[in-house]
Amino acid sequence: MSGQTNLSELLKALSPALLPDDYVFVFVKGLTFDDLQPLSPISVFIEEQGMSLILKQKIADLYGYSYTGVFKCITLTVHSSLEAVGLTAAVSSALAERNISVNLVAAFHHDHIFVNEHSAEQAMLTLQALSKEERNKT
After folding, report:
1. Which of 3, 23, 113, 127 would disulfide-bridge 81, Cβ 3.0–4.6 Å?
2. 3-class DSSP state for residue 38?
């Protein structure tokens, strides 16, 4: 299954789910993929400067990594295609209207939105309203 590409259908079926853990973004240099196993990162991105990791806050604290903010993850449970056009823009715009900063990670099946822990409830309400508004158009 390759996922949904129709923006209207994606918005109707967003079904955002707020994950219970707190997450942080950390930057590391000099680690190998073998070194990452005990950290259980949910995301790894390799940049020229080093690795950016998304970790559960409790793991980052355990290993002494520094970070600047604590985030909640909202998973859009609709199976979106990596070829879908407009979902990131629609979600980002709706949250920006509420002055909510968004860090979005697209994975194979779902999109995952990281928002400041203090904005999580408002972000959930905003995404639910966006989905409801799209369902009411038909």
Report:
1. 3
2. helix
Residue type, 7: L
Neighbours of 16 (CB within 10 A): 20
Side-chain half-sphere CA neighbours of 43 within 13 A: 20
Residue 55 CA, chain-centre distance (Å), reads 12
Sequence length of the chain is 138
Tokens in use for 27? 């930057």
Dist CA 99 CA 51 (whole Å) = 28
110-136 residue pLDDT tens:
889 999 999 999 999 999 998 898 888
Q: Nearest 5 degrees, angle CA 5-CA 8-CA 11?
A: 90
